[in-house]
Amino acid sequence: GDLPEEERPPLPSFPEVKDSTLRSVQSEFRWNAHYSRVIDNSIDLVHSPFVHSNSFGSGMAQDPQFPECDFHQGRWSGSISLHLKQPLPKGFLWNYIDRMGWAQVAITQAFYMPNLVSIDIANGKLIVMLAQVPLDNCITVTKMIQFRSFLAQPLFDGIFHNQNLQINQEDRRIVEAQQPEEVPAELTTELHLHSDVLSIAY
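Below the sequence we write its predicted structure tokens.
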């Protein structure tokens, strides 16, 4: 049931929602998976070069190493900040990003208890916010808002919708097949590496 109001995690502040200079698109994805697996996927960067080698993980796929990161943990949240290799120029979106000259891309990824995730890419140029909503133990719905400061005209919305759909489909094949279906409460049940620091904190 719901916690008493004084015990509930505070709602985080997302100033991007009111920033009129950013263009936003919304998406919704339905998973046949426990919400803990969906959240774990959304805060795990290490799978990117392997699962997303044809999209945003294409740059890392050439040399899949997890760089040093800055980790911060609060009472109800956690975040990591690091730099990743930019995606290879595959398709219109990644070709455009390649021309922007990002040799490395700054990433800040955070969770907010109980089920919110934010991903800041290139210091606010692209921001993704996710709410992972469990409908039951087997079905989760992702409510997604993506903000961008480039290609901000409405005619480009379809490109971002399609890219988000591709990324979701890449993730879905893995997440829906994971066993056990729920992330174990005991950390020693599954193998964790240093790069899992955000998942461990959650």
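The mean pLDDT is 88.
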